[in-house]
Design brief:
Bound molecules: fe (ii) ion
Helix content: 40-55%
Order of helices and strands: HHHEEHEEEHHHHHHHHHH
Number of strands: 5
Structural class: alpha+beta
Radius of gyration: 42 Å
Shape: elongated
Strand content: 5-15%
Protein backbone atom coordinates (compact mmCIF):
# COMPACT_ATOMS: atom_id res chain seq x y z
CA UNK A 1 0.00 0.00 0.00
CA UNK A 2 1.31 3.32 -0.85
CA UNK A 3 0.38 6.96 -0.83
CA UNK A 4 2.96 7.65 -3.55
CA UNK A 5 1.22 6.19 -6.55
CA UNK A 6 4.10 6.59 -9.00
CA UNK A 7 5.08 4.22 -11.77
CA UNK A 8 8.48 3.77 -10.09
CA UNK A 9 7.01 2.51 -6.80
CA UNK A 10 4.70 0.15 -8.67
CA UNK A 11 7.60 -1.33 -10.65
CA UNK A 12 9.72 -1.66 -7.54
CA UNK A 13 6.92 -3.46 -5.65
CA UNK A 14 6.43 -5.93 -8.50
CA UNK A 15 10.19 -6.51 -8.70
CA UNK A 16 10.20 -7.40 -5.01
CA UNK A 17 7.59 -10.11 -5.69
CA UNK A 18 4.37 -8.32 -4.79
CA UNK A 19 1.22 -9.84 -6.20
CA UNK A 20 -0.67 -6.55 -6.39
CA UNK A 21 -0.44 -2.91 -5.54
CA UNK A 22 -3.01 -0.75 -3.70
CA UNK A 23 -3.17 2.98 -3.61
CA UNK A 24 -4.24 4.90 -0.51
CA UNK A 25 -6.87 5.63 0.40
CA UNK A 26 -8.54 2.18 0.06
CA UNK A 27 -11.53 0.26 1.30
CA UNK A 28 -11.09 -2.86 3.45
CA UNK A 29 -13.24 -4.90 1.03
CA UNK A 30 -10.77 -4.04 -1.69
CA UNK A 31 -7.89 -5.51 0.34
CA UNK A 32 -9.90 -8.62 1.24
CA UNK A 33 -10.74 -9.13 -2.42
CA UNK A 34 -7.11 -8.83 -3.55
CA UNK A 35 -5.87 -11.16 -0.76
CA UNK A 36 -8.52 -13.67 -1.76
CA UNK A 37 -7.38 -13.52 -5.38
CA UNK A 38 -3.75 -13.91 -4.32
CA UNK A 39 -4.56 -16.97 -2.23
CA UNK A 40 -6.52 -18.51 -5.11
CA UNK A 41 -3.60 -18.03 -7.44
CA UNK A 42 -1.19 -19.56 -4.94
CA UNK A 43 -3.46 -22.57 -4.48
CA UNK A 44 -3.68 -23.07 -8.22
CA UNK A 45 0.09 -22.87 -8.55
CA UNK A 46 0.55 -25.51 -5.85
CA UNK A 47 -2.06 -27.73 -7.38
CA UNK A 48 -0.35 -27.40 -10.70
CA UNK A 49 2.98 -28.49 -9.19
CA UNK A 50 1.33 -31.42 -7.40
CA UNK A 51 -0.38 -32.46 -10.59
CA UNK A 52 2.91 -32.37 -12.48
CA UNK A 53 4.54 -34.48 -9.74
CA UNK A 54 1.65 -36.92 -9.70
CA UNK A 55 1.85 -37.23 -13.46
CA UNK A 56 5.57 -37.98 -13.42
CA UNK A 57 5.07 -40.53 -10.61
CA UNK A 58 2.27 -42.09 -12.65
CA UNK A 59 4.47 -42.30 -15.74
CA UNK A 60 7.31 -43.84 -13.72
CA UNK A 61 5.06 -46.35 -12.03
CA UNK A 62 3.64 -47.34 -15.42
CA UNK A 63 7.20 -48.00 -16.63
CA UNK A 64 7.95 -49.98 -13.47
CA UNK A 65 4.82 -52.05 -13.85
CA UNK A 66 5.70 -52.77 -17.46
CA UNK A 67 8.98 -54.48 -16.67
CA UNK A 68 9.46 -58.11 -15.74
CA UNK A 69 13.17 -57.98 -14.92
CA UNK A 70 13.99 -57.33 -11.24
CA UNK A 71 17.12 -55.31 -12.03
CA UNK A 72 15.24 -53.02 -14.42
CA UNK A 73 12.48 -52.45 -11.87
CA UNK A 74 15.02 -51.56 -9.14
CA UNK A 75 16.83 -49.26 -11.53
CA UNK A 76 13.66 -47.41 -12.47
CA UNK A 77 12.53 -47.11 -8.85
CA UNK A 78 15.82 -45.62 -7.68
CA UNK A 79 16.04 -43.19 -10.60
CA UNK A 80 12.51 -42.08 -9.89
CA UNK A 81 13.26 -41.68 -6.18
CA UNK A 82 16.33 -39.54 -6.84
CA UNK A 83 14.25 -37.44 -9.15
CA UNK A 84 11.12 -37.16 -7.03
CA UNK A 85 12.70 -36.09 -3.74
CA UNK A 86 15.91 -34.49 -4.95
CA UNK A 87 18.04 -36.72 -2.69
CA UNK A 88 21.84 -37.05 -2.69
CA UNK A 89 21.73 -40.80 -2.40
CA UNK A 90 19.00 -43.43 -2.42
CA UNK A 91 19.14 -47.10 -1.56
CA UNK A 92 16.80 -50.05 -1.90
CA UNK A 93 16.85 -52.99 0.47
CA UNK A 94 15.11 -56.28 -0.12
CA UNK A 95 14.39 -59.07 2.30
CA UNK A 96 16.98 -61.84 2.24
CA UNK A 97 15.21 -64.78 0.59
CA UNK A 98 17.21 -67.10 2.81
CA UNK A 99 16.49 -65.32 6.10
CA UNK A 100 13.22 -63.75 7.02
CA UNK A 101 13.49 -60.38 8.76
CA UNK A 102 16.92 -59.64 7.32
CA UNK A 103 17.32 -57.02 4.63
CA UNK A 104 20.08 -56.70 2.09
CA UNK A 105 20.94 -53.59 0.10
CA UNK A 106 20.18 -54.52 -3.51
CA UNK A 107 20.88 -51.23 -5.20
CA UNK A 108 22.16 -47.74 -4.43
CA UNK A 109 22.24 -44.62 -6.56
CA UNK A 110 23.96 -41.29 -6.06
CA UNK A 111 22.63 -38.10 -7.62
CA UNK A 112 24.83 -36.84 -10.46
CA UNK A 113 25.42 -33.55 -8.63
CA UNK A 114 26.41 -35.25 -5.33
CA UNK A 115 29.80 -36.53 -4.15
CA UNK A 116 30.14 -40.08 -5.55
CA UNK A 117 31.43 -41.29 -2.15
CA UNK A 118 28.37 -40.07 -0.29
CA UNK A 119 27.07 -42.61 2.25
CA UNK A 120 23.76 -44.40 2.45
CA UNK A 121 24.12 -45.59 6.07
CA UNK A 122 22.63 -48.95 7.04
CA UNK A 123 19.43 -48.86 9.09
CA UNK A 124 18.82 -49.72 12.71
CA UNK A 125 15.99 -52.15 12.05
CA UNK A 126 14.99 -52.30 15.75
CA UNK A 127 13.90 -48.69 15.44
CA UNK A 128 12.73 -48.68 11.83
CA UNK A 129 10.60 -51.82 11.64
CA UNK A 130 8.18 -50.95 14.49
CA UNK A 131 7.45 -47.66 12.75
CA UNK A 132 6.71 -49.44 9.49
CA UNK A 133 4.57 -52.01 11.22
CA UNK A 134 2.48 -49.27 12.81
CA UNK A 135 2.22 -47.53 9.44
CA UNK A 136 3.79 -44.35 10.80
CA UNK A 137 5.76 -42.08 8.45
CA UNK A 138 9.53 -42.05 8.78
CA UNK A 139 10.81 -38.62 7.80
CA UNK A 140 13.44 -37.09 10.11
CA UNK A 141 15.93 -34.27 9.88
CA UNK A 142 19.42 -33.68 11.25
CA UNK A 143 20.69 -35.56 14.29
CA UNK A 144 17.21 -36.89 15.00
CA UNK A 145 17.78 -39.32 12.17
CA UNK A 146 20.71 -40.97 13.98
CA UNK A 147 18.63 -43.35 16.05
CA UNK A 148 17.28 -44.90 12.84
CA UNK A 149 20.76 -45.62 11.50
CA UNK A 150 22.93 -48.58 12.44
CA UNK A 151 25.85 -46.17 12.75
CA UNK A 152 25.78 -42.35 12.63
CA UNK A 153 27.08 -41.09 9.28
CA UNK A 154 30.47 -39.56 8.76
CA UNK A 155 30.79 -36.54 11.09
CA UNK A 156 32.22 -34.42 8.32
CA UNK A 157 29.02 -34.88 6.43
CA UNK A 158 25.91 -33.63 8.09
CA UNK A 159 22.86 -35.67 7.27
CA UNK A 160 20.22 -33.05 6.64
CA UNK A 161 17.23 -35.24 6.00
CA UNK A 162 16.37 -38.94 5.97
CA UNK A 163 13.24 -40.64 4.70
CA UNK A 164 12.43 -44.33 4.54
CA UNK A 165 9.47 -46.09 2.99
CA UNK A 166 8.50 -49.72 3.52
CA UNK A 167 7.82 -51.86 0.45
CA UNK A 168 4.77 -53.77 1.59
CA UNK A 169 2.93 -56.68 0.05
CA UNK A 170 -0.29 -57.80 1.69
CA UNK A 171 0.95 -56.36 4.96
CA UNK A 172 4.36 -58.04 4.78
CA UNK A 173 7.47 -55.87 4.49
CA UNK A 174 9.53 -57.15 1.55
CA UNK A 175 11.96 -54.27 1.44
CA UNK A 176 12.55 -50.58 2.02
CA UNK A 177 13.37 -47.53 0.02
CA UNK A 178 15.63 -44.92 1.65
CA UNK A 179 16.48 -41.39 0.65
CA UNK A 180 19.28 -39.33 2.22
CA UNK A 181 19.96 -35.63 1.79
CA UNK A 182 23.29 -34.06 2.75
CA UNK A 183 22.68 -30.80 0.98
CA UNK A 184 22.27 -27.88 3.31
CA UNK A 185 18.74 -26.49 3.26
CA UNK A 186 17.45 -29.41 1.25
CA UNK A 187 15.04 -31.11 3.63
CA UNK A 188 12.56 -33.64 2.33
CA UNK A 189 8.97 -32.47 2.66
CA UNK A 190 5.94 -34.43 3.77
CA UNK A 191 4.66 -34.18 0.18
CA UNK A 192 7.83 -35.79 -1.11
CA UNK A 193 7.52 -38.56 1.48
CA UNK A 194 4.00 -39.25 0.26
CA UNK A 195 5.26 -39.40 -3.30
CA UNK A 196 7.84 -41.95 -2.26
CA UNK A 197 5.11 -43.88 -0.52
CA UNK A 198 3.12 -44.12 -3.74
CA UNK A 199 6.25 -45.11 -5.64
CA UNK A 200 7.11 -47.67 -2.96
CA UNK A 201 3.76 -49.39 -3.06
CA UNK A 202 3.87 -49.63 -6.84
CA UNK A 203 7.47 -50.83 -6.70
CA UNK A 204 6.65 -53.58 -4.17
CA UNK A 205 4.10 -55.11 -6.51
CA UNK A 206 6.39 -54.82 -9.52
CA UNK A 207 9.40 -56.27 -7.71
CA UNK A 208 7.33 -59.19 -6.52
CA UNK A 209 5.92 -59.73 -10.03
CA UNK A 210 9.39 -59.61 -11.56
CA UNK A 211 10.67 -62.03 -8.94
CA UNK A 212 7.78 -64.40 -9.49
CA UNK A 213 8.35 -64.19 -13.20
CA UNK A 214 12.07 -64.93 -12.82
CA UNK A 215 11.29 -67.85 -10.52
CA UNK A 216 8.78 -69.07 -13.05
CA UNK A 217 11.31 -68.87 -15.86
CA UNK A 218 13.89 -70.72 -13.71
CA UNK A 219 11.39 -73.34 -12.63
CA UNK A 220 10.29 -73.76 -16.21
CA UNK A 221 13.86 -74.29 -17.36
CA UNK A 222 14.43 -76.86 -14.62
CA UNK A 223 11.20 -78.55 -15.54
CA UNK A 224 12.11 -78.62 -19.21
CA UNK A 225 15.48 -80.16 -18.36
CA UNK A 226 13.87 -82.69 -16.04
CA UNK A 227 11.26 -83.42 -18.66
CA UNK A 228 13.83 -83.99 -21.39
CA UNK A 229 15.84 -86.36 -19.21
CA UNK A 230 12.63 -88.05 -18.08
CA UNK A 231 11.52 -88.41 -21.69
CA UNK A 232 14.90 -89.78 -22.69
CA UNK A 233 14.85 -92.15 -19.74
CA UNK A 234 11.39 -93.36 -20.52
CA UNK A 235 12.18 -93.84 -24.16
CA UNK A 236 15.28 -95.82 -23.28
CA UNK A 237 13.28 -97.94 -20.86
CA UNK A 238 10.72 -98.83 -23.49
CA UNK A 239 13.40 -99.43 -26.10
CA UNK A 240 15.11 -101.57 -23.46
CA UNK A 241 11.95 -103.61 -23.03
CA UNK A 242 11.62 -104.07 -26.75
CA UNK A 243 15.27 -105.11 -26.93
CA UNK A 244 14.94 -107.54 -24.05
CA UNK A 245 12.03 -109.04 -25.88
CA UNK A 246 13.97 -109.35 -29.13
CA UNK A 247 17.05 -110.67 -27.39
CA UNK A 248 15.05 -113.47 -25.85
CA UNK A 249 14.17 -114.62 -29.36
CA UNK A 250 17.02 -115.50 -31.69
CA UNK A 251 14.86 -114.89 -34.77
CA UNK A 252 14.10 -111.29 -33.98
CA UNK A 253 17.44 -110.24 -32.51
CA UNK A 254 18.38 -106.78 -33.87
CA UNK A 255 15.17 -106.60 -35.90
CA UNK A 256 13.92 -103.25 -34.57
CA UNK A 257 17.26 -101.56 -35.07
CA UNK A 258 17.48 -102.77 -38.66
CA UNK A 259 13.88 -101.75 -39.37
CA UNK A 260 14.66 -98.31 -37.93
CA UNK A 261 17.70 -98.08 -40.20
CA UNK A 262 15.78 -99.11 -43.37
CA UNK A 263 12.89 -96.81 -42.47
CA UNK A 264 15.42 -94.01 -42.02
CA UNK A 265 16.75 -94.64 -45.55
CA UNK A 266 13.23 -94.40 -46.95
CA UNK A 267 12.44 -91.22 -44.99
CA UNK A 268 15.57 -89.59 -46.39
CA UNK A 269 14.70 -90.82 -49.90
CA UNK A 270 11.26 -89.27 -49.55
CA UNK A 271 12.87 -85.97 -48.48
CA UNK A 272 10.89 -85.76 -45.24
CA UNK A 273 11.69 -82.89 -42.88
CA UNK A 274 14.04 -83.58 -39.95
CA UNK A 275 11.43 -83.93 -37.17
CA UNK A 276 9.45 -86.44 -39.26
CA UNK A 277 12.59 -88.43 -39.99
CA UNK A 278 13.15 -88.65 -36.21
CA UNK A 279 9.62 -89.93 -35.74
CA UNK A 280 10.12 -92.53 -38.49
CA UNK A 281 13.25 -93.82 -36.73
CA UNK A 282 11.43 -93.94 -33.39
CA UNK A 283 8.58 -95.90 -34.95
CA UNK A 284 11.10 -98.27 -36.51
CA UNK A 285 12.58 -98.91 -33.08
CA UNK A 286 9.25 -99.29 -31.35
CA UNK A 287 6.92 -100.72 -34.00
CA UNK A 288 6.73 -104.16 -32.39
CA UNK A 289 6.56 -102.94 -28.79
CA UNK A 290 3.12 -104.58 -28.54
CA UNK A 291 4.82 -107.97 -28.71
CA UNK A 292 5.69 -107.43 -25.03
CA UNK A 293 2.23 -108.80 -24.42
CA UNK A 294 2.62 -111.86 -26.66
CA UNK A 295 4.18 -115.26 -25.98
CA UNK A 296 6.77 -115.46 -28.75
CA UNK A 297 7.79 -118.99 -27.82
CA UNK A 298 4.31 -120.15 -28.84
CA UNK A 299 4.55 -118.45 -32.23
CA UNK A 300 8.10 -119.44 -33.14
CA UNK A 301 7.30 -122.79 -34.66
CA UNK A 302 7.80 -124.39 -38.02
CA UNK A 303 4.68 -124.59 -40.11
CA UNK A 304 1.46 -122.63 -40.16
CA UNK A 305 -0.05 -120.83 -37.18
CA UNK A 306 -3.50 -121.91 -36.02
CA UNK A 307 -6.22 -119.24 -36.42
CA UNK A 308 -5.98 -118.69 -32.68
CA UNK A 309 -2.21 -118.18 -32.79
CA UNK A 310 -2.59 -115.90 -35.81
CA UNK A 311 -5.16 -113.82 -33.93
CA UNK A 312 -2.78 -113.54 -30.99
CA UNK A 313 0.08 -112.46 -33.25
CA UNK A 314 -2.08 -109.93 -35.03
CA UNK A 315 -3.08 -108.26 -31.78
CA UNK A 316 0.41 -106.77 -31.34
CA UNK A 317 -0.18 -103.45 -33.15
CA UNK A 318 -3.22 -102.78 -30.95
CA UNK A 319 -1.30 -103.82 -27.85
CA UNK A 320 1.52 -101.44 -28.85
CA UNK A 321 -0.99 -98.63 -29.28
CA UNK A 322 -2.38 -99.31 -25.79
CA UNK A 323 1.14 -99.24 -24.32
CA UNK A 324 2.24 -96.03 -26.04
CA UNK A 325 -0.92 -93.96 -26.11
CA UNK A 326 -0.97 -92.90 -22.43
CA UNK A 327 2.60 -91.55 -22.69
CA UNK A 328 2.39 -87.95 -23.94
CA UNK A 329 5.79 -87.85 -25.66
CA UNK A 330 5.18 -91.19 -27.38
CA UNK A 331 1.93 -90.05 -28.94
CA UNK A 332 3.55 -89.06 -32.24
CA UNK A 333 4.69 -92.61 -32.86
CA UNK A 334 1.35 -94.28 -32.10
CA UNK A 335 -0.12 -94.09 -35.64
CA UNK A 336 3.04 -95.55 -37.22
CA UNK A 337 3.21 -98.41 -34.70
CA UNK A 338 -0.49 -99.13 -34.93
CA UNK A 339 -0.55 -99.19 -38.75
CA UNK A 340 2.66 -100.97 -39.73
CA UNK A 341 0.72 -104.11 -40.76
CA UNK A 342 -1.81 -102.35 -42.93
CA UNK A 343 -1.66 -103.18 -46.66
CA UNK A 344 -2.03 -100.81 -49.64
CA UNK A 345 -5.02 -102.72 -51.00
CA UNK A 346 -6.82 -102.82 -47.65
CA UNK A 347 -6.10 -106.46 -46.88
CA UNK A 348 -3.89 -105.69 -43.83
CA UNK A 349 -4.72 -105.36 -40.15
CA UNK A 350 -5.81 -104.21 -37.58
CA UNK A 351 -8.12 -101.71 -39.35
CA UNK A 352 -7.93 -102.78 -43.01
CA UNK A 353 -7.06 -99.23 -44.08
CA UNK A 354 -6.28 -98.55 -47.75
CA UNK A 355 -3.69 -96.60 -49.73
CA UNK A 356 -3.29 -93.01 -48.55
CA UNK A 357 -5.69 -93.79 -45.71
CA UNK A 358 -2.76 -95.54 -44.04
CA UNK A 359 -0.50 -93.11 -42.16
CA UNK A 360 2.69 -92.52 -44.20
CA UNK A 361 4.95 -93.73 -41.39
CA UNK A 362 2.99 -96.98 -41.23
CA UNK A 363 3.53 -97.48 -44.99
CA UNK A 364 7.27 -96.74 -44.65
CA UNK A 365 7.78 -99.11 -41.74
CA UNK A 366 5.75 -101.85 -43.50
CA UNK A 367 8.33 -101.95 -46.34
CA UNK A 368 11.31 -101.80 -43.96
CA UNK A 369 9.76 -104.46 -41.72
CA UNK A 370 9.00 -106.82 -44.61
CA UNK A 371 12.49 -106.49 -46.08
CA UNK A 372 14.13 -107.29 -42.74
CA UNK A 373 11.73 -110.16 -42.02
CA UNK A 374 12.54 -111.71 -45.42
CA UNK A 375 16.29 -111.27 -45.10
CA UNK A 376 16.41 -112.78 -41.58
CA UNK A 377 16.15 -116.42 -40.51
CA UNK A 378 12.76 -117.49 -39.25
CA UNK A 379 11.68 -120.60 -37.37
CA UNK A 380 9.91 -121.78 -40.49
CA UNK A 381 12.50 -120.79 -43.18
CA UNK A 382 16.05 -119.59 -43.78
CA UNK A 383 16.79 -115.95 -44.64
CA UNK A 384 16.08 -115.02 -48.27
CA UNK A 385 18.86 -113.39 -50.31
CA UNK A 386 18.69 -109.64 -50.89
CA UNK A 387 17.75 -109.98 -54.60
CA UNK A 388 14.85 -112.30 -53.87
CA UNK A 389 13.56 -110.06 -51.09
CA UNK A 390 13.68 -107.05 -53.40
CA UNK A 391 11.85 -109.01 -56.08
CA UNK A 392 9.20 -109.91 -53.51
CA UNK A 393 8.76 -106.25 -52.52
CA UNK A 394 8.31 -105.29 -56.17
CA UNK A 395 5.85 -108.10 -56.74
CA UNK A 396 3.72 -106.83 -53.83
CA UNK A 397 3.68 -103.18 -54.94
CA UNK A 398 0.09 -102.01 -55.07
CA UNK A 399 -1.20 -104.99 -53.12
CA UNK A 400 0.76 -104.93 -49.91
CA UNK A 401 3.05 -101.92 -50.36
CA UNK A 402 2.83 -98.28 -51.32
CA UNK A 403 3.87 -98.00 -55.02
CA UNK A 404 5.79 -94.81 -54.26
CA UNK A 405 7.80 -96.17 -51.36
CA UNK A 406 9.11 -99.47 -52.74
CA UNK A 407 11.10 -97.94 -55.64
CA UNK A 408 12.62 -95.39 -53.24
CA UNK A 409 13.59 -98.15 -50.85
CA UNK A 410 15.16 -100.19 -53.64
CA UNK A 411 17.31 -97.26 -54.74
CA UNK A 412 18.28 -96.43 -51.16
CA UNK A 413 19.13 -100.00 -50.14
CA UNK A 414 21.35 -100.52 -53.21
CA UNK A 415 23.18 -97.33 -52.40
CA UNK A 416 23.51 -98.37 -48.78
CA UNK A 417 24.87 -101.81 -49.65
CA UNK A 418 27.40 -100.28 -52.00
CA UNK A 419 28.62 -97.95 -49.25
CA UNK A 420 28.78 -100.78 -46.75
CA UNK A 421 30.73 -102.96 -49.16
CA UNK A 422 33.17 -100.19 -50.05
CA UNK A 423 33.71 -99.59 -46.34
CA UNK A 424 34.73 -103.24 -46.05
CA UNK A 425 31.70 -104.27 -44.01
CA UNK A 426 30.07 -107.62 -44.62
CA UNK A 427 26.66 -107.33 -46.24
CA UNK A 428 24.16 -110.19 -46.30
CA UNK A 429 23.75 -112.04 -49.59
FE1 LIG B 1 5.04 -106.10 -36.46
Amino acid sequence: MTGFGTVETAIEAMKKGAYDYILKPFKVEEVVHIVQRGLDRQRLQHENIRLKDALSIYKISEAIAGSLAVETVLDLVLDATLDAVDADVVSLLLEDPKREGRFIERMRKVAPRADPNVEAPALNLDEVLPIFQEDRPLLVHGSRSFRFLAEPPDLNRRLVSFCSIPLKLTGRIIGMLNAYSYTRGSKFSEGQRKMLYVLGSRAAVSIENARLYENLVDANQDLTKANVSLEENFKQTIIGFAHALEESDRYTRGHSERVAMYAHLIAIGLGLPEPEIDTVVKVGLMHDVGKIGIRNDKLNKPGKLTPEELGMFRSHPAKGKRILEPIPFMRDIVPGCYCHHEAWDGSGYPQGLMADGIPLIGRIVAVADAYDAMTSDRAYRKALPHEIACGELERCVGSQFDPQIVPIFLVQIEEFRKLEASAGRIIPR
